[in-house]
């Protein structure tokens, strides 16, 4: 459907060219003006900036229209180029604000205002911008006034605001332009404006959007949110904290179209399992490279270089061109041939059985970071990415029904659901369950446990009879471990790793897989 | 020799500063000095393995703190920020609760402002000795729960605690007013010789030795015991 | 086209418009594909754009892509239009990559008849003589042959049997399929000699059908009559420079013929020289200059070892972990800034800009960097799953450029100040270098220390 041309479009085009140059040509599409938008001055969705015509016209009563447009665009562009820049930063800021304020809406509002202050201050300092002129004549609520009082202090510009001395003084001490302490800065920022937010909440104006637009998630693409969640999982390192933020923002994430590709196995009405998402994202940071196609000798000989012909050497390799048509020692040249190298065929990757212990002695992955679960997740991902399938056996007290067996699949969601399940009961596995997953092609087996298995001897006996490559990763040292090691000493296909620091589990798992893949290629 | 920066020969090097830069820099400078002062106090106090609460010891630490901060130009926000820094434990790796509180008290007493408010709600660590020797003309408002010896040696100032204190609140106070909106612990008012303590919540225990002054519980005078009631 | 550009175009004698017309003609009639890059408010197809720029500025381009997606044909069309050569001649000059290629087939051979009479006379190949060199599937050539071609194109010198010809102008288009059985690798020292890498992509379902409906034998750039004329000249044994003069005369006639018959305008040698002169005059503005230095700093710096080296590994917990230097193995070469300058100037000229700005630098950087960077395995593994439209190496290069751009955007003033202060300090003023948290500041400081 063709967009109706707006009467300010030519001016917008001219100003946009100027703004783009000023901000070093950010990759943003050409902005547009909306006649129907009246609650906020501008909106950014999927990097596209839309300006409100009614706001522009109102502001133009005090300022030339081109300055109004320039100020609004400066504001929008700086959100893209400086703060928050990416989804991870946005989540981190929200998380800190929520720690202080305890309420989702207040935290969102505080985050919005903080990002506005950072972006506007950066723009004011680094670029030649009419933002301060715009704010001078803007209609303001109480919180806007306080923020503009802050701007007066930290910009040294009169914005026609009086009062808010105490709050602006305290806010002015925050180093907004220093990116590294932003989490701490928003923490203090939120603390200071908490009173004002509570007042807004009581008066029912808290859910009204900020005049300069809400910094919602619509500005990010699904891929950007994916990447941001991955980085956020890494930086929090705690499923509880991750979950708290993601759960809070579940509606907003869905509204913004995340996830788009259904990789989470979500559909309409499906809740987002934040715990599984946490381990999925974290495991992506521990990736193994895809096996490279091996270089091998092609078996064919190709002419590579010349050497002088000597009597007695065969004639068939003589190069008539370099020999100038003569057969004479010292003049005639023959070809030296060399075997070519070429790309070989990729060997297949064996499938994998992941055996994970979720008994009471293991960490509950939904409450704390479980390196055992992470290691299992890394192993699964590595095999999936190399086109293999993965089966999972999650056990606690198997005979009592505390077990889950997932047959071979390439569904990442199902694998993670099984790995992340926590029984928290006794520790007794059922060999038949593992045996039911065996294949003639002898899949690799990864066992991650604390070895405090009541029927350990059954496991030992079973593994001793296997030809599969088995990697057992366990935490700590105890008599069971020593017993296990003694029994496996002579088996070349079995590796046992004792881990002192749980943090080493993913590295060990990946290291072993790397060896396996190398031996195949 | 080639000057590889030739292209920037004519670039007008100028540092664009806005007031925020100066505010942040100045604050950073002051905080560095305050933190340095605290570290000196801690170094001084950790020479003995155990820090004991003795009057002379406390006074010695307080005097040292005062000497350290005499020349510093700071304000109320700096004091609050120091509390946060101590609580976070990043720049200041160790906290000895007694000296920390004494140092903060020294800062409060020496501050330019007459009224000081410290928001201590969300701090994880507990500060003791806050309000130590608060002089006349000064009002100190503490928001949040605090530790032992709050208002110890109060010297005429007004100390308002919007929260609870632990033991020995108002210990050794000589003059001034101590208001506690919630509860106190044991030995409230121990060795006080003057001034008033007002507690709106629960008093776990009043000290046995009180030399002077008054204690009010929910508006009712409880120390000394009411003469009219006795009569 | 912008008004200012139009004004400047008048000064350039309309050459800019001619080049744009060539682009438009190929885009609409010969190499049908989607635009996949934006510069300012214009969209271009990267393969076509960079091929045209390569032809104009004597560059070396590596074109990758799946078989049958127009890698070679795009280069052929651009070569024909930019150099006024009939397509058949270009086909005859192409070298195919296969392991049995020899120096005699690629560069030249002795005239055997004259050799039997005792005279050493070289019969030069079309590839060596023509200014445009196209090598198809270069990665199927053995390394020695790859090196031989790149050596020749680097300097424009072709030697055989103590004889040498020197090309006055030259450019190279080399195509390569993705890794499959039967292909070798292009080793790092060789691949670094290419200025740019582009992908010739699938044009999309709908455009593919349009292409499929075209008569594959119909091509207006062919002319058997003129092709014969060119071949006769090239086969002569005379002085190379004389031959080239006559070639140019024939090119003029061919160009006039194309314009008359088909309204197709091509570039003359004079026009190409004029374009190159104009391009070289275009300066980099200060931001482009500073940004490029910032990029080079991140690609060459190492706080621990002095510079990046392929056989040295980053320390755990290095302060510069967040910068690009941590994600790559190798150090960027000095060819890199030369390529950036040339191609950004070309792009600025095409846009009619008076100076090269960050916009042009950002546009060309990914294509100039993609083949030059050796990423660490961990980084590759982390990014392999990302959604993208570009081939992986170009995608990574684009992400990297965006990352460095963000950092530059945040501290552009500070960086420029640091460079200005450095100039003053090196000129004798007693100034301390400006500190900052980026490799560029460390590099500036080091430059100043090493002089003092």
Question: What are the key terms here?
Answer:
A: 521 residues, alpha/beta, 4 domains, six-stranded mixed β-sheet, three-stranded mixed β-sheet, 19 helices, 44% helix, C: 452 residues, five-stranded parallel β-sheet, two-stranded antiparallel sheet, 11 strands
Task: Provide a descriptive summary of the structure in words.
By secondary structure, chain A is α/β, with parallel strands linked by helices. Chain A folds into 4 domains: 9-217, no CATH class; 222-284, no CATH class; 296-342, no CATH class; 352-507, Rossmann fold, CATH 3.40.50. Chain A contains 19 helices and 11 strands. In chain A, the strands form 3 sheets. A 6-stranded mixed beta sheet of chain A has the order 8-7-6-9-10-11, sandwiched between helices. A 3-stranded mixed beta sheet of chain A has the order 1-3-2. In chain A, a hairpin with a 2-residue loop joins strand 2 and strand 3 (48-52). In chain A, helix 1 packs across helix 3, helix 4 packs across helix 9 and helix 14 (371-385) packs parallel to helix 19 (505-520). Residues 262-269 of chain A have low confidence and may be disordered. With 231 residues, chain B is α/β, with parallel strands linked by helices. Chain B has one domain (18-230). In chain B, strands 1-2-3-4-5-6-7 form a 7-stranded mixed beta sheet. In chain B, a hairpin with a 2-residue loop joins strand 6 (212-217) and strand 7. Chain B is elongated and about 90 Å long. In chain C, helix 12 (224-235) runs antiparallel to helix 13 (240-262). Chain C has 20 helices and 11 strands. The mean pLDDT of chain C is 88. With 452 residues, chain C is of the alpha/beta class. The longest helix of chain C is centred in the C-terminal third of the chain and has 35 residues, at 392-426. Chains in contact: A-B, A-C, B-C. The A-B interface holds A 100, 121, 124-126, 153-156, 169-170, 172-178, 188, 191 and B 16, 18-20, 23-24, 27, 77, 81, 84, 119, 122.
Can you lay out the helices and strands and say which pair or pack?
The complex is a heterotrimer of chains A (521), B (231) and C (452).
Chain A: H1 9-22, E1 32-34, E2 42-45, E3 48-52, H2 53-59, H3 65-81, H4 87-101, H5 104-126, H6 131-136, H7 142-155, H8 165-171, H9 182-203, H10 222-236, H11 239-248, H12 250-255, H13 274-284, E4 295-308, E5 333-343, E6 352-357, H14 371-385, E7 390-395, E8 403-409, H15 412-420, H16 431-435, E9 444-449, H17 456-464, E10 470-475, H18 479-488, E11 494-499, H19 505-520
Parallel strand pairs in A: 1-3, 6-7, 6-9, 9-10, 10-11
Antiparallel strand pairs in A: 2-3, 4-5, 7-8
Helix pairs in contact in A: 1-3, 3-5, 4-5, 4-9, 4-10, 5-7, 5-9, 7-8, 10-13, 11-13, 13-14, 13-15, 14-15, 14-19, 17-18
Chain B: H1 19-45, H2 55-69, H3 76-88, H4 97-110, E1 115-119, E2 139-143, E3 155-162, E4 175-180, E5 193-199, E6 212-217, E7 220-223, H5 227-230
Parallel strand pairs in B: 1-2, 2-3, 3-4, 4-5, 5-6
Antiparallel strand pairs in B: 6-7
Chain C: H1 3-11, H2 15-30, E1 37-39, E2 42-44, H3 46-57, E3 60-64, H4 71-83, H5 87-93, E4 95-96, H6 103-106, E5 108-110, H7 112-116, E6 122-124, H8 126-129, E7 132-136, H9 143-155, E8 157-160, E9 163-166, E10 171-176, H10 188-191, E11 196-199, H11 205-213, H12 224-235, H13 240-262, H14 269-281, H15 286-300, H16 335-351, H17 358-369, H18 377-383, H19 392-426, H20 439-451
Parallel strand pairs in C: 3-10, 3-11, 4-7, 7-10
Antiparallel strand pairs in C: 1-2, 5-6, 8-9
């Amino acid at each position: 459907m063709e967009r109706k041309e707006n009467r300010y479009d030519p001016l917008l085009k001219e100003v946009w060219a100027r703004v783009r140059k000023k901000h070093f040509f950010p990759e943003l599409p050409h902005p547009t003006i909306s006649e129907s938008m009246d609650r906020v001055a501008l909106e950014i969705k999927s990097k596209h900036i839309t300006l409100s015509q009614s706001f522009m016209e109102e502001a133009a009563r005090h300022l030339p229209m081109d300055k109004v447009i320039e100020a609004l665009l400066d504001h929008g562009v700086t959100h893209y180029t400086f703060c928050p820049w990416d989804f991870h930063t946005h989540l981190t800021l929200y998380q800190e604000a929520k720690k202080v304020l305890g309420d989702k809406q207040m935290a969102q509002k505080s985050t919005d205002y903080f990002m506005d202050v950072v972006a506007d201050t950066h723009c004011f300092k680094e670029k030649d911008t009419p933002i301060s002129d715009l704010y001078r004549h803007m209609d303001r609520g109480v919180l806007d006034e306080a923020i503009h009082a802050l701007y007066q202090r930290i910009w040294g510009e009169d914005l026609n605001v009086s009062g808010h001395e105490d709050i602006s003084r305290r806010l002015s001490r925050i180093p907004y332009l220093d990116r590294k302490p932003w989490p701490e800065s928003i923490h203090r920022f939120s603390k200071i404006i908490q009173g004002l937010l509570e007042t807004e909440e009581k008066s029912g104006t808290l859910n009204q959007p900020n005049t300069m637009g809400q910094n919602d998630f619509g500005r990010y693409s699904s891929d950007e949110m994916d990447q941001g969640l991955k980085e956020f999982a890494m930086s929090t390192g705690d499923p509880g904290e991750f979950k708290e933020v993601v759960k809070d923002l579940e509606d907003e994430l869905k509204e913004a179209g995340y996830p788009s590709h259904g990789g989470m196995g979500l559909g309409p009405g499906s809740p987002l399992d934040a715990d599984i998402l946490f381990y999925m994202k974290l495991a992506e940071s521990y990736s193994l490279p895809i096996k490279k196609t091996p270089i091998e000798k092609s078996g064919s000989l190709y002419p590579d270089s010349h050497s002088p012909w000597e009597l007695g050497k065969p004639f068939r390799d003589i190069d008539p061109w370099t020999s100038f048509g003569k057969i004479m020692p010292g003049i005639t040249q023959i070809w030296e041939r060399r075997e070519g190298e070429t790309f070989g065929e990729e060997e297949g990757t064996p499938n994998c059985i992941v055996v994970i212990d979720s008994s009471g002695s293991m960490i509950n992955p939904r409450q704390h970071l479980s390196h055992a679960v992470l290691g299992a997740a890394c192993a699964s991902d590595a095999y999936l990415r190399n086109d293999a399938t993965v089966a999972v056996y999650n056990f606690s007290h198997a005979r009592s029904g505390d077990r889950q067996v997932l047959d071979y699949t390439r569904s990442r969601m199902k694998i993670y659901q099984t790995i992340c399940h926590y029984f928290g009961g006794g520790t007794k596995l059922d060999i038949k369950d593992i045996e039911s997953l065996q294949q003639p092609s002898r899949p690799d087996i990864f066992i991650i446990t604390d070895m405090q298995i009541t029927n350990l001897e059954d496991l030992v006996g079973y593994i001793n009879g296997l030809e599969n490559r088995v990697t057992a990763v366990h935490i700590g040292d105890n008599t069971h471990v020593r017993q296990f090691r003694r029994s496996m000493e002579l088996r070349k296909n079995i590796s046992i790793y004792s881990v002192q620091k749980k943090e080493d589990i993913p590295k060990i798992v990946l290291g072993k897989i790397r060896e396996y893949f190398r031996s195949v290629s | 020799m080639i000057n590889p920066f030739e292209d920037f020969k004519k670039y007008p090097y100028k540092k664009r500063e806005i007031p925020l830069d100066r505010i942040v820099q100045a604050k950073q400078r002051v905080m560095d000095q305050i933190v340095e002062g605290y570290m000196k106090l801690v170094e001084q106090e950790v020479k003995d393995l155990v820090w004991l609460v003795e009057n002379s010891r406390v006074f010695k630490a307080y005097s040292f703190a005062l000497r350290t901060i005499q020349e510093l130009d700071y304000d109320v926000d700096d004091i609050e920020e120091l509390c946060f820094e101590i609580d976070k434990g990043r720049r200041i790796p160790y906290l000895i609760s007694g000296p920390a509180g004494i140092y903060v008290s020294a800062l409060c007493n020496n501050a330019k402002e007459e009224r000081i408010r410290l928001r201590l709600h969300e701090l994880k660590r507990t500060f003791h000795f806050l309000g130590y020797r608060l002089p006349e003309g000064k009002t100190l408002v503490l928001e949040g729960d605090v530790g032992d010896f709050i208002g110890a040696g109060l010297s005429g100032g007004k100390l308002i605690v919007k929260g609870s204190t632990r033991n020995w609140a108002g210990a050794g106070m000589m003059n001034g007013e101590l208001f506690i909106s919630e509860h106190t612990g044991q030995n409230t008012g121990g060795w006080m010789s003057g001034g008033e303590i007002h507690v709106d919540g629960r008093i776990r225990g009043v000290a046995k030795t009180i030399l002077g002054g008054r204690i009010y519980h929910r508006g009712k005078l409880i120390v000394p015991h009411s003469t009219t009631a006795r009569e | 086209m912008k008004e200012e550009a139009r004004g400047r175009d008048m000064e350039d004698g309309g050459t800019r418009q001619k080049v744009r017309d060539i682009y438009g003609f190929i885009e609409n009639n010969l190499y049908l594909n989607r635009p996949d890059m934006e510069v300012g408010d214009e969209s271009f197809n990267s393969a076509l754009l960079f091929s045209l720029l390569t032809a104009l500025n004597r560059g070396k381009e590596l074109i990758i892509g799946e078989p049958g997606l127009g890698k070679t044909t795009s280069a052929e069309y651009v070569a024909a239009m930019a150099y006024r050569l009939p397509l058949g001649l270009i086909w005859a000059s192409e070298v195919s990559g296969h392991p049995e290629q020899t120096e005699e087939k690629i560069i030249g051979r002795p005239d055997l008849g004259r050799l039997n009479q005792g005279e050493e006379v070289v019969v030069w190949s079309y590839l060596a003589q023509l200014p445009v060199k196209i090598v198809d599937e270069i990665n199927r050539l053995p390394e020695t042959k790859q090196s031989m071609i790149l050596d020749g194109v680097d300097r424009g010198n072709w030697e055989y049997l103590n004889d040498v010809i020197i090309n006055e102008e030259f450019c190279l288009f080399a195509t390569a399929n993705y890794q499959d059985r039967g292909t070798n690798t292009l080793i790092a020292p060789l691949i670094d000699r290419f200025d740019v890498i582009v992908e010739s992509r699938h044009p999309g379902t709908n455009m593919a059908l349009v292409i499929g409906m075209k008569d594959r034998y119909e091509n207006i750039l062919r002319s058997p009559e003129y092709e014969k004329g060119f071949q006769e000249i090239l086969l002569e044994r005379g002085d190379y420079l004389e031959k080239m003069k006559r070639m140019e005369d024939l090119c003029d006639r061919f160009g006039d013929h194309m314009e008359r018959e088909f309204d197709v305008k091509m570039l003359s040698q004079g026009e190409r020289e004029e374009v190159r002169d104009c391009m070289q005059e275009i300066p980099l503005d200060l931001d482009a200059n500073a940004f490029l230095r910032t990029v080079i700093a991140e690609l060459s710096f190492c706080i621990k070892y002095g510079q990046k080296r392929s056989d040295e590994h980053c320390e755990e917990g290095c302060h510069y972990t967040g910068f690009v230097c941590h994600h790559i193995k190798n150090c960027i070469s000095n060819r890199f800034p030369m390529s950036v300058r040339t191609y950004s100037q070309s792009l600025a000229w095409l846009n009619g800009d008076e100076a090269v700005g960050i916009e042009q630098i950002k546009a060309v950087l990914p294509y100039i960097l993609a083949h030059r960077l050796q990423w660490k395995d961990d980084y590759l593994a982390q990014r392999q799953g990302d959604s993208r439209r570009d081939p992986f190496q170009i995608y990574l290069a684009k992400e990297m450029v965006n990352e460095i751009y963000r950092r530059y955007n945040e501290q552009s003033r500070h960086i420029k100040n640091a460079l200005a202060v450095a100039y003053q300090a090196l000129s004798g003023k007693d100034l301390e270098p400006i500190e900052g948290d980026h490799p560029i500041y460390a590099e500036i400081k080091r430059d100043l220390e090493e002089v003092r």
